[in-house]
Amino acid sequence: MNAQILSGPAIAEEIKNELQPRIEALKAKGIIPSLTVILVGDDPASQVYVNNKHNTFIKMGLSSQVERFPSDLSEKALCQRIQALNQDPSVHGILVQLPLPKHINPQKVIATIDPNKDVDGFHVANAGALMIGQPKFIPCTPYGIMKMIEKTNVTVRGAEAVVIGASNIVGKPIALLLQAAGATVTICNSKTKDLAAHTKRADILVVAVGKPKMITGDMIKPNSVVIDVGINRGEDGKLCGDVDEETAKEVAGYITPVPGGVGVMTITMLLVNTIEAAEKTLTTF
Prior knowledge:
- The protein is built from 10 helices and 11 strands.
- By secondary structure, it is α/β, with parallel strands linked by helices.
- Strand 2, helix 2 and strand 3 form a beta-alpha-beta unit.
- The longest helix is centred in the first third of the chain and has 21 residues.
- The radius of gyration is 19 Å and the shape is globular.
- It starts with a strand and ends in a 5-residue tail after the last helix.
- Pfam families: THF_DHG_CYH, THF_DHG_CYH_C.
């Protein structure tokens, strides 16, 4: 057996094509969906992520601004800048790139963002809406994962889903989305006893812990969907996921590669959320 590869770029391209009519409809009304990204400090990985987001928006004909601040920016000054963006009607989405410098409380910063412009879906109001099954903005990585699962022949309703990792960014929200879609969901972590006992019964396995190749082929149920969210640097210096792709693809039915998998989808769903934010301004009275 050799798993089918769930290509992030291919699925993203399909979604982008579907977005074009919505973008044109907004532009016809004089609205260009606009995202402002705030980057504090000079973290190399964050620089790459922000540039990728910016370039994707520009290529789609949308508006993207990146505001860069030194690492010694005060928490108060950052929150004041966000409050100003909240009041700017030309800005539809606000994203603060994480991680932030240690002297800044990320929860306080995220709470400052207007929930109607929180296109990352991290504000407590949006997290709560997701929990009760009425999401306004779905966090981008879990949103992208669900779109990838839709491309398989696996029926989520009634499926056994195992999520490894319980972060607010990926683990918890994807568990809620899978549960809402009718799956029976188990949440594990890197310290779960007999982890393989859980993973071997997963029709859908989502791994997001940041440990290189911790899930191997002998831990995977045959023909399952394996979603690898991890991005790590292996001993050979090459990028790799939390799943040992070489052994896993011999067992799984579908698998996401690293790179070329979930990461591309995250930025694409940020596009979707920003366009939705712009569309909602048409119905705001």
